[in-house]
Amino acid sequence: MKAFLVTAVIAVLFIVTMAFGARNNQLVEVNYFIAQGEFALSWIVGAMFLAGFTISWLMAFAIIVRQKVTIRGMKARLAKQTSETTS
């Protein structure tokens, strides 16, 4: 539940940022490897914020899954060792 609330707060902040940025109509030229384009500064900032948030969320999810797998393995070893010592 806590993770959901944090995600909801981040989403609201993202929407508020985009609303404030929508009032800034400044165009920025972006040169990338294949081509170039002109985009509104607010959209670039919003897209980079969203990309960073998504990447960090995926990395955190991978770490949590790895830890849960490790814990499950350790619990299985503990149960096996406990059953060996009691028998």
Automatic annotation (TrEMBL):
Where is it mainly found?
A: membrane
Q: Does the keyword Transcription regulation apply?
A: no
Q: What's the short name of a Pfam family annotated to this entry?
A: LapA_dom
Report the subcellular localization: Cell inner membrane
In the UniProt record, does the keyword DNA-binding occur?
no
Membrane topology, as annotated, equals: Single-pass membrane protein
Lipopolysaccharide assembly protein A domain: residues covered? 24-84
Keywords on record: Cell inner membrane, Cell membrane, Membrane, Transmembrane, Transmembrane helix
Q: Name one GO cellular component term.
A: plasma membrane
Question: Its Gene Ontology biological processes?
Answer: lipopolysaccharide metabolic process
Q: Which InterPro entries match?
A: LapA, LapA_dom
Regions crossing the membrane: 40-65
Protein family membership = Belongs to the LapA family.
Q: What does this protein do?
A: Involved in the assembly of lipopolysaccharide (LPS).
Q: What is this protein called?
A: Probable lipopolysaccharide assembly protein A
Q: Which organism is it from?
A: Ferrimonas lipolytica
Provide the organism lineage as a comma list: Bacteria, Pseudomonadati, Pseudomonadota, Gammaproteobacteria, Alteromonadales
